[in-house]
Every structure is written in C-alpha cells, then in structure tokens.
TrEMBL record:
It comes from Desmophyllum pertusum. This is Ion transport domain-containing protein. InterPro entries: Ion_trans_dom (IPR005821), TRP_cation_channel (IPR052076). One of its GO terms (molecular function) is monoatomic ion channel activity. The keyword Repeat applies. It is a multi-pass membrane protein. It comes from the Eukaryota.
Length: 231
C-alpha cells in the first residue's frame, strides 16, 4: 500500500514538474503567447463546465439508471466519466443502443436486457447529443476563440507583466542586506571620465531607449555632456 502511494506521488510529481516548466515559458515573448492562450482557455473552460456540471451530473444519473447493466455505466463515477467522453464526440451509438436493442441482447445468465427501456433511453440519448455534444461543445469552442483574439491584442502587455512579476519575485528572494548594497534607484553618468567602462552605462542606456531620430540622439548627447543624472 505504501509503495503504491509513493509511486503515485512520484508520477504526479513528474507530471507537475513538466507542467510548471511549461507555464514558466509565459515569460518569453514568442513561446509565452501560446502558453498564455492555453491558460486563459483553460480558465474559461473551467468556469463554463462548472456552470453546466449540474446538468452533466443529471445525465450521468439518468444513464446510470437506464444502462447500468453495461460496463461503461456500472456505477455513477463510471457513468460520469463516460458522459464526459461522450461530450467530445465518442458516443458509441451503435454499441450502446442499436446492437443491444435490435438483437434484444441480455445480460449473460439472466433475462435482464442491456437496455430495459429502449424508447426512453433512445430519446434521452438524442437530447444529450443535441444539448451537450453540439450546443455545449460549440459554446466552449466559441468562447475559446474569443479568448484567443483578446489575448493576441494584449500579448506584448501580458509578456511585460509576466517579466515584471519574475523580476519582482527574484528581488524578493534575495536577502535585504544584499539588495541594499546592489540596488540603485538612479543612474549617474560622468561625462568627464573618458574611460570606456565609465561610458558603458551611457551606451547601454542609449541602446535600451532606442531613439532613431538624429535630433533625439543629439539632445541626449548634450545632456550627457552636461552630466545629467537619469532616474
């Protein structure tokens, strides 16, 4: 028993490690867009499916009562799992209804049919196909497409937010005495010192700002000559 629990923990831990690795890619621009799409669609799916979970539970109970002689509906949890699988298109219409009703199949060793109430079962099966397999699934697809379009419009902003949260988390993980020594709230430029290493912060600042106009570059150069401190 203990060995089984340890094995389950290892398997779940392995899965969670790779899921966490995938989610960490959200901080990168190119790959992070698709991970963000996946997470947002997952949130939408969970909200919608939690709303319709009551209806899915009702379908599970109904088919458990009507088809409990079949292995897929032997108990409530198997019926609930089968309903979720049927929701994505695996209906098994022929195996569940057509063969059993047409051939009057019964449970081996008894006279109990696999489908005791064929008319009611057939009608409820059609209702399930229309209400869940068609309407609900298409609703989920439509909401997912809408989420993807909204994410594409704000992809760069979301990437910057994730990167800022990453930097903030890294800074909070360091001890305070290290942050007091290393953190600087301003950049001081000394133009009279012509050493390359002294001018390196200014060059990095220019490359990060990314000005393209000559007038803007000239203005920054004049400020640099006057010894302006950039906050």
């Amino acid at each position: 028993m203990q060995h089984g629990i340890e094995m389950d923990s290892r398997v779940l831990g392995l899965l969670l490690c790779y899921v966490n690795l995938t989610l960490s890619l959200r901080r990168f621009g190119g790959l992070g867009l698709y991970v963000t799409m996946y997470v947002e669609v997952l949130y939408t799916f969970l909200k919608v499916i939690s709303t319709f979970l009551i209806a899915l539970t009702g379908y599970s109970l109904v088919f458990f009562i009507l088809l409990k002689e079949q292995g897929n509906f032997a108990d409530f949890w198997l019926a609930l799992a089968k309903i979720n699988i049927m929701m994505v298109g695996e209906l098994d219409y022929t195996d569940l209804l057509v063969d059993n009703i047409g051939n009057n199949n019964t449970v081996p060793g008894t006279n109990v049919p696999y489908v005791p109430l064929p008319t009611l079962t057939f009608c409820l099966f059609l209702v399930f196909v229309l209400m869940v397999s068609i309407v609900l699934v298409n609703l989920l697809v439509g909401l997912a497409v809408g989420d993807i379009e909204s994410i594409r419009r704000t992809a760069s902003l979301r990437t910057l937010i994730d990167q800022a949260l990453l930097v903030d988390g890294i800074m909070k993980s360091y001890p305070r005495f290290i942050l007091r020594r290393m953190y600087r709230c301003s950049l001081e430029i000394k133009p009279n010192q012509n050493s390359f290493f002294n001018r390196l912060p200014f060059l990095v600042l220019i490359s990060q700002i990314g000005f393209h106009g000559h007038a803007a570059e000239l203005q920054i150069w004049h400020e640099h000559r006057r010894g302006v401190v950039y906050q």
